[in-house]
Design goal:
The protein has about 150 residues and is an alpha/beta fold. Helix content is about 50%, strand content about 15%.
Amino acid sequence: MEIEDQAWTQAEPEVEALVWRAAQAVLDAHEDIEGQGIVILLADDGSVQALNRDFRQKDYATNVLSFPSPPNPEGQIGDIALAFGVCAREAAEQGKPLAHHLQHLVAHGVLHLLGYDHQDDGEAEAMEAFEREILAGLDIPDPYAEPASTEG
């Protein structure tokens, strides 16, 4: 793991443990995979924007990017990069603790490394169901549930 933006550790002092716990939960649910090497970069928005521009031709920061590795003798399955500003802003907008949102996005990114996607409704439903299962095991509420109404 590489922490490029110290805002991550300032906001979440246990950020490394949170990240590895989420990544390991996904890997543990996929005992059939070969290799478990993942590089995770906790970056700032500018770094993630540059990666998104250079590799996906989309010139904006996004919350998480996944880069699957081709089969290799080292057992690396890929790299994940997360943008602090985007993640923190989304968590605040959604009324979620940053720790929960971070673990959701790490799980989401690892699932992408394992070949999951959400290009169509069927794929999205399958991926979201698996995310819910993983997050429930981490005692994190369903990130896709509608917020409870406060109107009376």
